[in-house]
Amino acid sequence: LMIPKTKGKIIPIEPSSPSAAAMSRFVRRLAGIPWRQIAGEASSVGLLMAQGLCAVHVVSEHVLGVAFPRGPSMLPALNMAGDVLLTDKVSPRRGWVGPGDVVLLLSPEDPRKIVAKRVLGMEGDEVTYPVDAGNSDATKTVVVPQGHIWVQGDNIYSSNDSRQFGPVPYGLVKGKMSYRIWPPSRIGSIDSKE
Amino acid sequence: SLRLHGTEEDCSDRTSSQCIRFRAQFTAFLQCFCTSEVQILPVCSDRIVLIMGARSQLWSIAKMSVTGGVIGVTISDRYVTVVAIKGHSMHPTMTATDSALRGDIVLAEKACLDQYKFSRGDVILFKCPSNHKEVFVKRLIGLPGEWIQLPASSEIIKVPQGHCWVEGDNAARSWDSRSFGPIPLGLINGRVTHIIWPPSKIGRVERKWPEDRIPPF
């Protein structure tokens, strides 16, 4: 039990009852805790944690991130679930995305959803796609407008992509995925088409 | 360590108390700026030579700037960012001039990108649909799923799900949804909340509906 020193005289307070005595013991205990030192340590640890979180954010948003794609639209290149992919965030910003790349993009139908699809055509390219896969063999050819890209899932029978929502602006692309790091049996580059 | 070869008034008497006191004070003064030990050697010479063995100084400056940069990028990505206006499409709400310093500078918040919930009349920043490197600032006129009337003709169009219709306040000089159609919400970069430069225009950017425009339904 540490009793703090006060400048000048220490005035003892006479406790008038047992509960008051307990209170004054409690207050003295409280005053004995090194609050300033604890606050200093807590704030420096907190600052360090904040710096760490900021560093994680910068790296995962602007350099290299990790993605866990789910869904059947990219079979057989990506599994329905359980895959872990490295996402390169530098390439889209620099324009190093081309046909055959698997990209992550914000869905044009719901910006809170992120979808993984393969790029089939860049701006100016002519893309021929099956209109109604599985039911007919009819195809259509479009020219991708300026600043847009055409994305399609590898599994054309079960994919909601540019065949439904049209070419998407390049600005929606958030990352390029080319390397799988889980499951161990499939570590390596994602199969590229053509 | 930092070594200072000093010149003294009276080299013949290096041990004089004045010299000693001067050296002590100067050492203490320099020690405030150096993380490593400062030593002043009493050498009689013509000039004062500062040998900056200051590798630790550069290292701590580098560490501080990297930390500051990382924190600044995080805040700019997630909370609030500062943008200079170029272009005249939002006149008179925001103006631009040819010089970057004298155009308007605005504050944009990023919290709205969490749920993509916007209101009619918000001023938003978004990437141009035909050039992802350019950022535009316009007012949100139509939300997803709404039917709006195009100003010039009497056409009525529906804004698709996940998209929005944007128009600039200065209709004559604005390249907006009337030319490139509704834009996906995913292109939005932030919502402009305040103008912070020039001082005469400091204040909130209000959510405003353009007059003589029929509200959507």
TrEMBL record, chain A:
| Keyword tags | Hydrolase, Membrane, Mitochondrion, Mitochondrion inner membrane
Pfam families linked = Peptidase_S26
Q: What are its GO cellular component terms?
A: mitochondrial inner membrane peptidase complex
Main location class: mitochondrion
Ranges of residues in domain Peptidase S26: 49-130, 139-182
Any one GO molecular function term = serine-type endopeptidase activity
Q: Where in the cell is it found?
A: Mitochondrion inner membrane
Q: Name one GO biological process term.
A: protein processing involved in protein targeting to mitochondrion
Q: Which residues form the active site?
A: 73, 117
Membrane is among the record's keywords: yes
Q: By its UniProt entry, which InterPro entries does this protein fall under? A: LexA/Signal_pep-like_sf, Mito_IMP1_subunit, Pept_S26A_signal_pept_1, Peptidase_S26
What is the role of this chain? Catalyzes the removal of transit peptides required for the targeting of proteins from the mitochondrial matrix, across the inner membrane, into the inter-membrane space.
Q: Give the family from UniProt.
A: Belongs to the peptidase S26 family. IMP1 subfamily.
Quaternary structure (record) = Heterodimer of 2 subunits, IMP1A/B and IMP12.
- According to UniProt, the name of this protein is Peptidase S26 domain-containing protein
From TrEMBL, chain B:
What is the protein's given name?
Mitochondrial inner membrane protease subunit 2
Cite the InterPro entries for this sequence.
Answer: IMP2 (IPR037730), LexA/Signal_pep-like_sf (IPR036286), Pept_S26A_signal_pept_1 (IPR000223), Pept_S26A_signal_pept_1_Lys-AS (IPR019757), Peptidase_S26 (IPR019533)
Q: Which PROSITE patterns match?
A: SPASE_I_2 (PS00760)
- Please verify whether the record's keywords include Transmembrane: yes
State its location(s): Mitochondrion inner membrane
MF annotations from Gene Ontology = serine-type endopeptidase activity
Q: How does it sit in the membrane?
A: Single-pass membrane protein
**Protein keywords:** Hydrolase, Membrane, Mitochondrion, Mitochondrion inner membrane, Protease, Transmembrane, Transmembrane helix
Boundaries of each Peptidase S26 domain copy? Answer: 61-150, 157-197
Catalytic residues? Answer: 89, 138
The principal localisation class reads: mitochondrion
Which organism's genome codes for this protein? Aegilops tauschii subsp. strangulata
Instruction: Spell out the GO cellular component terms annotated for this protein, sorted alphabetically and separated by semicolons.
Output: mitochondrial inner membrane peptidase complex
Give the family per the record: Belongs to the peptidase S26 family. IMP2 subfamily.
